[in-house]
């Protein structure tokens, strides 16, 4: 056995086997290359490669290499002369041995120099061209061999029996690698030492063996290539097992931290801090002096290209809804991936955790994502720009932030909005134009490359490919369907598409079955690439395949971009904060910087104070307002439908009977409803009055729209207690049945109420008549006004009807047909054509005025009629039944106002306060409504200040944590 790496090894053997980083291999002499074996035998004193080496010569050569560099000290007790003799003899022996070795080497070099050169040229022509096999032994294999001491690794993991079993094969692997590397280096770099060795070996080979050696070399190369792939996959599986065990250990540690075993508070992870910054930026108006250029991984691709599947493989869970060919991703989904003890997912605005190891929770998560997507889409649209934020944590998940966008489409199909294609393009460009966004371009490998749309879009946004990573999906279908596998090689080498990229990857994301688990997809992907000719033929490099390599590459690129750009972005927000603070100081020096939420809370307190002030209204004020408004609402009905019909009767008995019947009908059907309407309107008016009174005080004018909206919404929601109507009906009916006026003040009050009512009605009637007939002679002369033809006809009709009333002072309220005919003929005799309907309308107003004038005269007579009423004297001239009617109406108004006031103060005001609070709470949760109702530059400036400060603080905290992690 030859110990590689020792100082006694020959130069040829040391050139064939790598010995860096202390890695030591024992290679059998029979397994050395023939050239190396020949050189070794020659230096060992054995010129016949078939015979065993000359052991005496080998021991002699070895003893020479172990000579001491300094002479030993003379032994104690010996004389100086004896020591000098021994020293001279020792030096002579050393010189003779060195000269003998020099002669041997010089003779060999001079004697065989020309022959070796000629033989090497002939032997070199026999070697095949190994330049095309450079990929078989990548550079990382040699770098790995230099960095890892396999002996130390085996000792560090004594329990790993699998690794221990693999160690005996390392000698053979090292020998093969050394042989192949020597061949490549001799062909490409022309190493003179190897050339000399090759020339010596070529001189020893017979010309008849050239063809045999060439074919055997090719076979050995193919064998080495297959063995390399098997070994690589073997170590990859071993590495995956180690990663799995490491993941379990980290999970245990994280669980202990989560349970507080170490008695310390677990800090937020870097990616969580970074995600919070992005969430704030998504709500911030980026058009105001600040652009969001923080890195994100933007996932774009054609529809059904496999974007969602790639994301799920990175997140290690089937978290997205799926459909058969239809568009499922309808809005951007921001997925924050981070490491945690449990594999869970949660939304930014929800505290519920979805356990991704349970199928029920996975199904619930997919339904929730689909529901949120459809809810974010406005009516008439197909996609939405509203971002859904989702956090996914789990052991071993790479840390990064990805944004999944709707797939790019080429045609708008039935059921889609007409602008869907342009909307998706605009949304994708908005995310990709961020100079620090990492574009993960997904291309379907199972379809023709020429059908791709997204590659042109990506090449426009990143023409130099400085931040683009290309992913070719469904490679299994591509290998099966494509007649020319070289097209796949062209794609992953960036030679087929016009776009450029940082890296190219090929992945397999399952067999297309939505029920497949992530583990089964990983196994399928590993088996496919292990058996794929694409990898064996060198069309795909090992580091370009599997989603595992893809996720690691994307994560590294993401964090590199974050470290390069985050401090610059923090400086931008710092400058924006200074500008906003300066503007606030110059424009609003005496006001606090209240944002929209704080201003809303201030307005909410003011509105609640105003509602509470309703309880401070005095009972007298409530009753006075209610009584007045109720009479205004019912007075017309009382005069027209009750008093006038009853007054047409000839005696008091008929009058009272008619009045009782009319009042009963009115109370059963209309009066309670009218009373409640009046009460509700009064409450609204008082509420509005109190809110208006605050405007003149310290109220901020930016609250006006909000208060008006709260008032309208509260009134809309408020409904009067229906049970109050039944009790009110009973109270009003009892009040109207009472006819007993007990004292003179009540009588006088009724007379006054009746007189005021009649005067008001008479005034209104006379105003109507004036409008009908036009200006009188005085107004015509003084104001130069003339009557219209219709007013002239009305005036002539009025004059004719007044003559009729003078002749029949006790005429009824209705004009007979023959009387209408008579009036019409009389007017025609004066040349006036009149319609019978006009005659009746004019008569109605004239008779009302006539009746009211007579009623007022009778009211004056009844002022002294209380004595006769109390004694029940029968006197036709002093029958004051109409006064009793008005007293009954007046008493009903008083009692109704008192009842409504009690309902208002005891029940309805409190219910209104409750409604106002509910409306304010609802408005407080509706950010869109608050933004619409509380507006102004001051509000927007305070909002921007708050956001920029929060972003800057979180960025600084993130940067500090990032530096600590370094």
UniProtKB/TrEMBL annotation:
GO terms for cellular component: microtubule; mitochondrial inner membrane; mitochondrial intermembrane space. Pfam families: Dynamin_N (PF00350), OPA1_C (PF19434). Gene3D superfamilies: P-loop containing nucleotide triphosphate hydrolases. One of its GO terms (molecular function) is GTP binding. It is a single-pass membrane protein. CDD domains: DLP_1. PROSITE patterns: G_DYNAMIN_2. GO terms for biological process: apoptotic process; endocytosis; intracellular distribution of mitochondria; mitochondrial fission; mitochondrial fusion; peroxisome fission. This is Dynamin-like GTPase OPA1, mitochondrial.
